[in-house]
Amino acid sequence: MIGQLGLGGAEKQLVLLARGLSARGVRTHLLVMFEKGPREEELQGSGVRVVELGFRARSHGWTSYVANIRAFVRLVVFLRKERPQVLQAFLFFAYVMAAPAARLARVPVLVAGRRSLGYFKKDHRPALAVERIATRWTDFVVANATAIADEVRRDEGVPAAKISVIPNGMRPSEFEPAEPADVPTSLPVVLCVANLGPHKGHRYLLEACAALRSSGHPCTLVLIGDGSERTSLEQMADRLGIDVRFLGARTDVAGFRARADVVVLPSLYEGSSNAVMEAMAAGLPVVATAVGGTPELLEERGVLVPPADVTALAEGLRQVLCDRDAAAALGRKAREWAMANLTADVMVERYVTLYRQLLEHRPTT
Q1: I want to staple 301 with a disulfide (CB 3.0 to 4.6 A). Which of 52, 155, 327, 334 is the partner?
Q2: Residue 198 CB neighbour total at 10 angstroms
Q3: Residue 121 has what pLDDT?
Q4: Which residues, other chains included, contact 310 with Cβ-Cβ below 8 Å and sequence gap of 6+?
Q5: Measured between alpha carbons, how far apart are the two ends of the chain, in Å?
Q6: What is the pLDDT of residue 211?
Q7: CA 320 to CA 261: how far, in whole Å?
Q8: Quick one: which H or E segment has residue 35?
Q9: pTM (2 decimals)?
Q10: How far is 34 from 58, CA to CA, in rounded Å?
Q11: What gap in Å lies between CA 280 and CA 332, rounded to an integer?
Q12: What is the rounded distance in angstroms from the CA atom of residue 34 to the CA atom of residue 21?
């Protein structure tokens, strides 16, 4: 169960999990709270049934209130009819709504998936209170990075026995070579795949690229993603006089990775980054900020720098761009580790093992 099926990393992972479960003979439904989205196409031919519940994300007075009550009742009725052994909910709205529904429908096992650090909830006491109640009604919590699991234990008091870490996974195709995209430039290509939001740290990246140019190491920065910061970032790039290509949100990222010399992620905070994982699978060197789960991915396999530090970010990029042998070695290490630890098959098997353990040890009545 999830809010919607957009192009975000959590949606990608849930689709991979649903496909993998269905391929193993597990009858799988994917419940969507608000609306479907482009990821639904990735489920075609998988045997996964997508169910739209009809919740409304935005409030329009009593109309939305009544619609959400009906959607909740629809969810409970569906669960009672289908009688799933396990309900897995991804992201805040889904696991908060899944908790009471699962209890009313007597679903044997409810698992909540935590995909990011809880910065957005720290100053929102009602959200934290609701989350804690939902967690008490939840049988188990799965984080996709140790940093996230540690935060859940520390800030919410969830016991260690009730939470574990299952890293994200990737499709086999993400480990295969791709045809390089056409990026007309004679300069080294630095690629960043991230939504253009404040917490992704693009402003520091643009300043770092300007510092590289000033030190005699100009580059072409390719940004894939869209968001609220786009206009201000475009203005900033013009003011700094650097070569930045704003390509917007798109799904043909593999070709741009194949064209890139280095992948960078300058986030101020992060969960477990799919963009970093995909660069590792492609054997690319990665320069990223040491936040959230990123150090777990890149320890001794990439270049880690402090967040919001233009000088360190520029130096990290310079090292990779100027020492191609060292950069290639980092890329090889990253790819080897990703192939051993970050495939979709490994991820799905870990979930299946967890589900079986939880079902075997659930209390009997």
Answers
A1: 334
A2: 12
A3: 56
A4: 204, 207, 208, 211
A5: 26
A6: 98
A7: 9
A8: strand 29-35
A9: 0.82
A10: 10
A11: 8
A12: 23
Amino acid at 163: I
Compute how many other C-beta atoms are within 10 angstroms of the C-beta atom of residue 238: 10
Return the number of other C-beta atoms located less than 10 Å from residue 312's C-beta.
19
> CA geometry: angle at 330 spanning 326 and 333, to 5°?
135
> Residues 199-228: pLDDT tens digits?
999 999 999 999 999 999 999 999 999 999
Per-residue tokens: 345: 């098959």
- In 3D space, the residue among 258, 252, 189 whose CA is nearest the CA of residue 220 turns out to be 189
Q: Please work out, in degrees rounded to the nearest 5, the angle formed at the alpha carbon of residue 155 by the alpha carbons of 150 and 156.
A: 100
Q: Is the pLDDT of residue 128 over 60?
A: yes
Q: Which residues contact 97 (CB under 8 A, 6 or more apart)?
A: 1, 33, 55, 72, 75, 89
In 3D, which of 289, 305, 310, 345 has the Cα closest to residue 212?
310
DSSP 8-state code for residue 134: H
Q: For position 118, what pLDDT does the model report?
A: 60
pLDDT tens for 100-117 read: 999 999 999 999 998 877
Q: For residue 60, give the DSSP letter.
A: B
Band (123; pLDDT cuts 50, 70, 90): low
